[in-house]
Amino acid sequence: DSGVTQTPKHLITATGQRVTLRCSPRSGDLSVYWYQQSLDQGLQFLIQYYNGEERAKGNILERFSAQQFPDLHSELNLSSLELGDSALYFCASSPHTNHKSTDTQYFGPGTRLTVL
Amino acid sequence: TQLLEQSPQFLSIQEGENLTVYCNSSSVFSSLQWYRQEPGEGPVLLVTVVTGGEVKKLKRLTFQFGDARKDSSLHITAAQPGDTGLYLCGSSNTGKLIFGQGTTLQVKP
């Protein structure tokens, strides 16, 4: 158990819909990262938040957005869903901002999103 | 953008065999991390290598960082069914952790 929790574990929805994925980081960790894992693209970094502020951005679509709340939990919002958005979505947390590239990221169990 | 290439993509071996997984980049790594992911779970960090030429051992797993810090390898000795999983190399660049496509390892009893 990494100490990172994600809900829900599974989500099935239809194209065009909007969903929200939730992540609670490890106690004391200030940074939260979101990743998307699909069979064809592998594990892709989406976005990072540090202490409530956006810190780094990766291959995140404009239809996707995220935020980190004062209690440090984070939500990833996916809208106008398409079939290709079906994937595993992982949240990870680390103590710092990862300016030191050796900072360990602890991954949650993921949310499996299926868009029908 | 740094790209990480892993090989092989798939590996199916018998229990007791040895294997090596490779991770290569055209750019120099500041550091490199190896993760293992089991089905239904998130990746778990195995090791971080930082110094060119560095070798780290974790029980039957040996991790090596190339002298030029552009390649790394993971060697498993006497593989066991419990080693089955997806092995990912990742490198962090200003907060973005970039992963290779992964090597799916199946160890048959």
Helix tally of chain B equals 0
Which runs of chain B of at least 5 residues are low in confidence (pLDDT < 50)? none
End-to-end gap of chain A:
31 Å
Task: Determine the N-to-C terminus distance of chain B.
Answer: 40 Å
Q: What do the pLDDT scores of chain A average to?
A: 92
Shape of chain A: globular
Largest sheet of chain B: 6 strands, mixed
Which H/E pattern describes the elements of chain A? Answer: EEEEEEEEEEE
User: Structural class from helices and strands of chain B?
Assistant: mainly beta
Structural class of chain A: mainly beta
Shape of chain B: globular
Query: In angstroms, what is the radius of gyration of chain A?
Result: 13 Å
Q: Which bin fits the share of residues in helices of chain A?
A: under 10%
The number of distinct helices of chain A, counting runs of at least 4 residues, comes to: 0
Sketch the major β-sheet of chain A. 7 strands, mixed
Strand proportion of chain A: over 45%
What key attributes describe this structure?
heterodimer, A: 116 residues, mainly beta, seven-stranded mixed sheet, four-stranded antiparallel sheet, 52% strand, B: 109 residues, five-stranded antiparallel sheet, 11 strands
